[in-house]
Amino acid sequence: MENNYIINIEDIKKTYQLGKVEVKALRGINLKISEGEFLSIMGPSGSGKSTLMNIIGCLDTPTSGTYHLEGINVSKLNDNKLAEIRNKKVGFVFQTFNLLSRANAIHNVELPLLYSKDGGGRRRKIFNALDSVGLIGREKHRPSELSGGEKQRLAIARALVNDPTIILADEPTGNLDSVTGEEIIAIFQKLNREGKTILLVTHELDIARHTGRVIYLKDGIIPNEEKIKSPIDALQRLKNMPKLEDKINSI
Fold first, then answer.
1. Alpha carbons 149 and 70: distance in angstroms, whole number
2. Distance from C-alpha of 35 to C-alpha of 65, rounded to nearest angstrom
3. pLDDT tens per residue across span 173-232
4. What's the pLDDT tens digit per position in 105-144?
5. How many helices (H) and strands (E) does the chain have?
6. DSSP characters over 6-51
């Protein structure tokens, strides 16, 4: 990987065609992420956060621009190649957990392995993933028998089972109380110390403070990116932005 950039995005644009309407979700994103970084992506609704995460996670492809993941240009790969890279290199964690309600913890964690060509040591991988998030002893429980924090731990274990180099977390604390949210962030910090590159979408300043860098999106771009030198700079900018209710009241 050139300069140890695990992710190198250059002038990425994404346009959706909704009937006769063109929606420009991303308008030219440039972003370099070093191996082992822990960063958060913030911005108002409709700013392009989810679109950017989907492209980074190989769930979607850009309309134009280039995206190198571990030195591989994935911008123009077909769906099969994208699925292969996604399964091997990226783990996903979602706000709503996306767990199989009728399956116990073991079978939920096992799911990515069913799509992987490497089936060796499956049981060991599952229990290693459960152990890494503190769920040993709960492996026979179904999601309905787990607390919200345990459900998210299970979702993280599922993301880890194929030993990806990158973890993408979309509002992973959004459905949790503040204390449980802090526990989930502590797990991400531990995984980051162990070498995982972690990208986290959040609306919460208190969560973003725990990451090493904050990327702020607005209207499909990263505004004034050259002026952001640290997480504190980005967080200060977010603090200074007018609240949504203030904007509404001014109309």
1. 32
2. 21
3. 988 999 999 999 999 999 999 999 999 999 888 899 999 999 999 999 998 654 444 555
4. 999 999 999 877 665 689 999 999 999 999 999 999 999 9
5. 9, 9
6. EEEEEEEEEEEEETTEEEEEEEEEEEEEETT-EEEEE--TTSSHHH
